[in-house]
Specification:
Blueprint lengths: L1 H4 L10 E5 L4 H12 L3 E6 L2 H10 L4 E5 L5 H9 L6 E4 L12 H29 L2 E5 L12 H22 L4 E7 L8 H4 L2 H10 L12 H8 L10 E4 L7
Family: Belongs to the short-chain dehydrogenases/reductases (SDR) family.
Protein name: SDR family oxidoreductase
Pfam family, one: adh_short_C2
Length: 248
């Protein structure tokens, strides 16, 4: 992964990293990035099929574990098994276009995308405090823009900005930094209905300042930076990684 080559080899050697929502797409690329930078990584997900597919790749330093981020007891039990934790990446997220206008679906999406980031951060905090570690949340360009088909996704990802700032101030006094990235249009399964259609693929590329879609690997470097000693005095920020789309 060329994005990792930009950093000192073994930058995260000896570190323990958890990537929630790390069995596919963006989360899986981030988990692989930390593993290639020397960390021992546990990536979580709730889909048995995705867990099985990810395990089949057999990446060194990368383990996969089932976790329902909506279940407080499961989250508590998960973190109780750790002796050390240096980085938590909250990458869990879903979108349910159209259906999010229904209350039950709206609340479920909000729980997975926003409430669970608070839930995991709160349970991980004692470990992160001991390690003087960091949290990296995953927001979205819809933290700044809007999409009427996904009101819960838009609201939850906007909420990640505020949660990141609040956690940064709450945890900063104990040496724990909290930041976020805001991905744009990256080629994932979630965005396939757009990039697989030539016209919509072109429209989105043309609005980007870099005139292309992002890849999941484009997000690895920014997250490694935010979690690294190079960002020791950086906290409470959300870094857009969208090729300039949201300013177009």
């Amino acid at each position: 992964m060329k994005e990792v080559e930009a950093f000192k080899p073994g930058l995260f050697s000896g570190n323990r990293v958890v990537v929630s929502g790390g069995t596919s797409g963006i989360g899986l690329s981030l988990a692989k990035g930390f593993a290639e930078a020397g960390a021992m990584v546990i990536a979580t997900g709730s889909s048995e099929s995705r867990l099985a597919a990810a395990r089949a790749e057999g990446v060194d330093g990368l383990l996969f574990q089932r976790l329902d981020v909506r279940d407080k007891a499961s989250v508590n039990a998960f973190f109780s098994g750790f002796e050390r934790l240096d980085v938590l990446v909250n990458c869990q997220g879903v979108a349910r276009p159209g259906a999010e206008w229904e209350e039950e679906t709206f609340m479920d999406v909000m729980d997975i995308n926003l409430s669970s980031a608070m839930r995991l951060s709160r349970e991980a905090f004692p470990l992160l405090k001991e390690a003087k570690g960091s949290i990296v949340n995953v927001a979205s360009m819809l933290s700044y823009l809007a999409d009427e088909t996904v009101p819960a996704y838009t609201a939850s990802k906007t909420g990640i900005l505020g949660l990141t700032r609040a956690l940064a101030h709450k945890y900063g006094r104990d040496g724990v930094r909290v930041n976020a990235i805001a991905p744009g249009y990256h080629r994932t399964d979630m965005t396939k209905p757009l990039w697989s259609v030539p016209e919509s693929e072109r429209i989105i590329s043309d609005r980007s300042a870099l005139k292309r879609w992002g890849t999941t690997e484009d997000l690895v470097g920014p997250v490694l930076f935010l979690a690294s000693p190079a960002a020791a005095f950086v906290t409470g920020i959300t870094l857009p990684v969208d090729g300039g789309y949201h300013i177009g």
